[in-house]
Amino acid sequence: MDTEQFKALLLQQQKSLMDVLESGKSAAGIVKLDQTSVGRLSRMDAMQSQAMLQEASKRRQQSLRDISKALARIDSGDYGFCEECGEQIAKKRLQINPASRYCIECSSNLETA
Ligand SMILES: [Zn+2]
Prior knowledge:
Layout: H1 3-38, H2 43-76, H3 91-96, H4 104-112
Helix pairs in contact: 1-2
């Protein structure tokens, strides 16, 4: 896989994340409507599912930020290099997550730090 392919992959992921975020907004509206009209959901349940939705949406927004950073790095020619040590990130790793910012070593160091 070359940079152009990673770029295509990133753009694809970016688009589908944006679609999910958009549909998530309308879905949240539907939940609210159900609550008032049916009133079956307890307050606790409603709060819990709201928190889960917020958590999921936070993660998606974080992924979107990572993706746009990766796209910016493609444009500047820095794509595929670890932000921490500057080493090249393994292609296999980028194939799994094209928005990876660190090599395997640094990312495990950062996670345990
Ligand atoms: Zn590194």
